[in-house]
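Hey everyone, long-time lurker, first post.

I ran two proteins through the pipeline my lab uses and got sequence/structure pairs for each. Pasting them in order. The first:
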Amino acid sequence: MIALIDYGISNLRSVQKAFEHLGSEVTLTSDPDQVMQADKLILPGVGAFSAGMAGLRQRSLIEPIKRRVRQGAPLIGICLGMQLLFDESQEVGQGLPPEAGLGLLAGRVVRLQGEGIHILHMGWNQVEPVRDSALLRGIAPGAYAYFVHSYVCQPAEASAIVATTDYGQDFASVIGKGNVWGIQFHPEKSQRTGLQVLRNFLDVVEHV
């Protein structure tokens, strides 16, 4: 069973339709017990980091997600879902302490920076692999994907970065360590590239 986690802040239907297009049935759930029974986990999301963590807390999903990942179930975070995988986010604002994330990956989430750019990175941009990964099989270097975000992930370990994208700075657009994966772009809006990433995730057993 593949669990598509509903925590009240997600582009759920579009992600679900993308998996259905690939012939894969996913179970939309906010039930902690179903999360614990899942073979694979999908954590989508749009919006603010704090609202995302609040949604997970309110539904008692944080510990089941962490426990199931520790047990070996592959998880992919999409857009905000990727950011929630990290230790903390600075999205709360200057002068305030960072907000804790799921802590499945070491690192933090910071605001986009760069000279002469609009802080909202919205539209098509290229994904450049920095190492081999099962998640990017069949995707050519420089393939385009669709982004909508103002914050980026900074993994503490460079080895967790699978691909980068240039927007005022090089940022991690695909990450992977062990059975934890993340993509900053929206696969359901990224046409062939996005569908191939989701297909690769379906084929993943446990490790990057």
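...and the second, right after it:
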Amino acid sequence: MVVQQHWRITALLVFAVAGSWFALSGLNGQDRVVPIPVNRPPRAGRGQDVDQLMQAKLDHAQRILRGLVVHDLGAVKESAEALKLMSIDPPRAWKHKPGDDEVYEHFRTEFMRLAARLELEAGAERMAGAAWFQQQLTAACVTCHDYIRDEDHKAGGNAR
């Protein structure tokens, strides 16, 4: 009985130390959650129509991939920041049904969160983290576009 209790206490201490180490190792000031910007900088994408904004996002996504391949994390960080800022507002003249607001907000916010994390990982020169968040960002793009296309198809429209 005492041996069993000793193992439980040892296991709890190991988990507590490991958990503290993992929690504290990421708190170097750059890994904290970045709040959504409240200032609307000129690069945020307002004033661009849907086609212009999507092309700009694609250009930055390609620049991120290139930066990861050639180990130019400065370019990755810059493009991730641009994507984050572009996602603050929906593009001008974006046509959507009233019920899409909540779903689109989810995709927009997730895109912004992933771009912000990609920016942080690239800024801290953590290649593996930057590559992982680039993949997650790409998956978010594909999922959002699938949703928009599927919803538009159900409505009989022509989505991109």
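Reply from user beta_strand_b:
Welcome! Quick read of the second one: The two ends are 66 Å apart (CA to CA). The domain at 33-155 is CATH 1.20.120.10 (Four Helix Bundle (Hemerythrin (Met), subunit A)).
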